[in-house]
Amino acid sequence: MSEKNAVPVEVLSPILKRWRNDPSALVQILREVQESLDWISPPVIDALTRALKLPYSKIEGVAGFYSFFYTRPRGHYRVLFADNIVERMAGSAALIERMCRNLWVEKGKVSEDGLLSVDTTSCIGMGDQGPALLVNNLAVPKLTEARIDQLCELIRGKVPLAAWPAELFAVDDNIHQRGLLLDHALAPGDALRAAQARCAWGGAGSGPNALVEALRQARLRGRGGAGYPTALKWESCRNAPLAAGKERIVVCNADEGEPGTFKDRVLLNTQADLVFEGMTVAAHALGAKRGFLYLRGEYRYLLEPLQAVLDRRRAAGLLGRAILGVAGADFDIEIHLGAGAYVCGEESALIESLEGKRGTPRNRPPFPVTNGYLDQPTVVDNVETFACAALIAQHGGECFAGIGTAESTGTKLLSISGDVARPGIYEFPFGVTVGEVLAACGAVDTQAVQVGGPSGTCLGVAEFGRRIAFEDVPSAGAFMVFDSRRDMFEVARNFTHFFAHESCGFCTPCRVGTPLLKNLMDKLANGHGSPYDFAEIENMNHLLRQMSHCGLGHSACNPVLDTIARFRPAYERRLSNQSFEPAFDLDRALAPARQMTGRDDEGAHLSIHCEEDQ
Amino acid sequence: MSEKFTLDGQEILFRAGQTIIQAAQDAGAWIPHLCYHPEFKPHGSCKLCTVTVNGRHMASCTTQAAAGQVVESNTEALNGERRTLLQMLFVEGNHFCPSCEKSGDCKLQATAYELGMMTPHFDHFYPSRPVDASHPEVLLDFNRCILCSLCVRASRDVDGKCVFALSGRGIGTRLVVNAASGRLVDTDVAMDDKALSVCPVGVILKKRRGFAVPIGERTYDQAPISEVKE
Ligand SMILES: Cc1cc2nc3c(=O)[nH]c(=O)nc-3n(C[C@H](O)[C@H](O)[C@H](O)COP(=O)(O)O)c2cc1C
Ligand code: SF4
Ligand code: SF4
Ligand code: FES
């Protein structure tokens, strides 16, 4: 740990050099600084202002945005437990308590000796092997009491992370069903050679492009959630005018922040070549020279393996200068890591983050295809979309279009977690019914499925005949299963906490509306709800949907509305009163006073309720 | 200037490149707004200027005017939604209008009057936001900040500095100043900075000038905000 006022030049210099003193790499620089120094102190920010020629307020603004950056000391070991509902169902709360008790630290605070902190974070993409945590952003899945005790010993013994047993960090793929994507027989370079045979590299704007046509024929739609036709996106980017000195950019969205989703993690771990090949196919179609993989910070452990794949591809002539020996076919990929911000999965926020800024969604139009990264035409696609594009470049659009449904061609990777016998990754043709999926993963006594994560759809038993497809129930990949033991109110409440935590704070309705919604759900949970609160939720939904700036705010009420519509008794059980109930509870408000005075006797409580007084 | 759209049934002419709110202001029509100011690049964050364009909700400060658009603004439904946004802005910070120097000159207060906001409706958040009185000439009372970023834009785009910036996230979003100490006195601010004169509410206040104009004779005491030209 660094002294308060010392600026360790020997730490900063190599980081700044690696990132070319480039202010647009600020997020990456801050990440590496924190990895070395544990936190981002004022003297360090001061040093960065000089090296990057950025004002202090700008750097503080960026550092303050991302939840994995700390501008106050947070300990040498920073433990963050995943707090998605699936982890809670798997018993995370007891494990958090066990660790806190074991290490004498209060959740959310730094230990008195400054050694560690324990806190929670949003889903970390380990839903099939939770409970799980991050320690200094490295994932430790499959937590048990024994594992927690082992971690406590390592922390207490101040063992450096590099010396921790490797098996602690072992993440399983848990692939249970393969199809088109997970079963392909392509070798690295195959799809690129096929692309080269279809048409010459680049040449944007010069009429139809055979690769774009193949995507059109395949009727490929984006896998990141919105289902936008990929051919249209690539074509708009191809046709966007290029100002002098500007170039086209290819971005792979591996932010995978939607709770319950982990299929991009498995794709990147098992099919990285296919994904990078898809990005290179895009570069081929667009004549792009520069690509980025934006990898969520929770997947930090994938950085070195992915760098190794990129190196191998460069050595094999599949990346870098003169790809496949074709003069002018130049394209390379840089990996940027996120730092704990779900909103950075939104494509324009992602671009802001790539530019080293706060991850705030932009005003649109203009769209990224014309004005994206550093104002250049940019294609942003999901990991799975690029994998599909590589397959289509190889096999053509027709065979892809033959799988799935009329409006949703190909297959879909589902990340299945919750109350099932075999959680993990399943690849199904689009059009599969929810019931078929449940049967495949061994779910019994299921009462609900949350398809597509908190911003998706909650389905009850009566709807298990519905299909996973853009025209019926779309899904970016999450499939969380709840059996009849589960309290669906608590599921929705967990999701409202997620949205409040992840709101970027740019626009009024979402910045203030998501915490208000969270407070409303907490009020119900505390037994202070009234029917009046249903109307409040309705109003909040209306406002968020109509007035919010981006998709996060638009969908923040979905889980609450869906569960009220299907599981109303779970809410009604919580109503203490049939008329208005204030959220303010005088007796609860006295809790801090009781704690301070060490009293908990009858006289320290208000025994009668306000309404009885009135 | 021959193309036009309609705003609440009234025809509005616009020039190519104008936003809906710009064209409306030029035509003397008022669309409620807080983060928009004609002298600065639109930000589109407060959402108070939201109108419906051919039935769809859009922020009028960031939406380009186009021929034939049917724009609705002064409807009971939209004004109701705006009242809710105003209530959110009030409960998010600490606004005690009767003791605020800016009372009568404050756009938040004036807009709330104009749109008939009678109560805060929601529970207050009561955030803890210490004031910054470090500078001899300027007081910063962050309790009233609505995060409109006008001071940020003015400092960046007009003054060529970065005296103010937004930090934090979500409900924890907050205004910071350009100094490691976090104090205005240690920044490069100058008294003639544009950034010091754009705050629509009572955050950035020149000291010892609070009551130069008595209450009752202030901007929005004289006329409602919908009639005051910007
Ligand atoms: C709040 C929010 C979060 C998002 N997160 C992701 C994400 O983690 N991964 C992703 O691929 N798309 C995400 N998206 C969708 C992207 O904005 C974008 O539509 C997508 O990356 C486009 O790729 P596609 O066409 O291949 O689906 C998110 C959107 C919103 C509004
Ligand atoms: S809707 Fe939420 S996440 Fe999206 S811009 Fe507004 S505050 Fe940010
Ligand atoms: S200080 Fe004033 S101008 Fe600056 S963001 Fe806050 S409310 Fe807006
Ligand atoms: S005035 Fe348009 S969003 Fe604030």
Can you lay out the helices and strands and say which pair or pack?
The complex is a heterodimer of chains A (614) and B (230).
Chain A: H1 9-18, H2 26-37, H3 42-52, H4 56-65, E1 77-82, H5 85-89, H6 92-103, E2 116-121, E3 133-135, E4 138-140, H7 145-156, E5 175-177, H8 190-198, H9 210-218, H10 230-239, E6 249-254, H11 263-270, H12 272-286, E7 290-295, H13 303-315, E8 332-337, H14 347-354, E9 378-382, H15 383-395, H16 397-401, E10 411-418, E11 424-429, H17 434-440, E12 446-451, E13 457-460, E14 478-483, H18 488-502, H19 508-525, H20 531-547, H21 551-555, H22 558-566, H23 568-572, H24 586-589, H25 591-597, H26 610-613
Parallel strand pairs in A: 1-2, 5-11, 6-7, 6-9, 7-8, 10-14
Antiparallel strand pairs in A: 1-3, 3-4, 10-11, 12-13, 12-14
Helix pairs in contact in A: 1-2, 6-7, 8-12, 8-15, 9-10, 12-15, 18-19, 18-22, 19-20
Chain B: E1 3-7, E2 10-14, H1 20-26, E3 50-53, E4 56-59, E5 70-72, H2 76-92, H3 107-114, E6 138-140, H4 150-158, E7 164-167, E8 174-177, E9 204-206, H5 219-222
Parallel strand pairs in B: 1-5
Antiparallel strand pairs in B: 1-2, 3-4, 3-5, 6-9, 7-8
The complex binds flavin mononucleotide, iron/sulfur cluster (SF4) (2 copies) and FE2/S2 (inorganic) cluster (FES).
Note the main attributes of this structure.
heterodimer, A: 614 residues, alpha/beta, Glutaredoxin, 6-stranded mixed sheet, 26 helices, 14 strands, 41% helix, globular, disordered C terminus, B: 230 residues, alpha+beta, Ubiquitin-like (UB roll), Alpha-Beta Plaits, 5-stranded mixed sheet
Describe the 3D structure.
The complex is a heterodimer of chains A (614) and B (230). Chain A is of the alpha/beta class. Chain A has 6 domains: 9-65, no CATH class; 77-172, 3-Layer(aba) Sandwich (Glutaredoxin); 177-401, 3-Layer(aba) Sandwich (Rossmann fold), CATH 3.40.50.11540; 411-486, Ubiquitin-like (UB roll); 489-572, de novo design (two linked rop proteins) (Up-down Bundle), CATH 1.20.1440.230; 587-614, no CATH class. In chain A, 41% of the residues lie in helices and 12% in strands. Chain A is built from 26 helices and 14 strands. Chain A has a 6-stranded mixed beta sheet. A 4-stranded mixed beta sheet of chain A has the order 2-1-3-4, covered by helices on one side. A 4-stranded parallel beta sheet of chain A has the order 8-7-6-9, sandwiched between helices. The radius of gyration of chain A is 25 Å and the shape is globular. With 230 residues, chain B is of the alpha+beta class. Chain B folds into 2 domains: 3-74, Ubiquitin-like (UB roll), CATH 3.10.20; 83-210, Alpha-Beta Plaits, CATH 3.30.70.20. Helices cover 20% and strands 15% of the residues of chain B. Chain B contains 5 helices and 9 strands; from the N terminus they run ββαβββααβαβββα. Chain B has helices at residues 20-26, 76-92, 107-114, 150-158, 219-222; strands at 3-7, 10-14, 50-53, 56-59, 70-72, 138-140, 164-167, 174-177, 204-206. The radius of gyration of chain B is 18 Å and the shape is globular. The two termini of chain B are 22 Å apart. The relative contact order of chain B is 0.15. The A-B interface holds A 42-43, 45-46, 55-58, 60-61, 63-67, 341, 358, 363, 365, 500-509, 511-516, 519, 539, 542-543, 546-549, 583-584 and B 42, 44-48, 50, 57, 59, 62, 64, 81, 84-85, 88-89, 91-92, 122-123, 125, 147, 161-174, 176-180. The complex binds flavin mononucleotide (FMN), iron/sulfur cluster (SF4) (2 copies) and FE2/S2 (inorganic) cluster. One iron/sulfur cluster (SF4) binds at residues 145-151, 164, 175, 198-199, 201, 203-204 of chain B. Residues 145-151, 164, 175, 198-199, 201, 203-204 of chain B line the site of one iron/sulfur cluster (SF4).
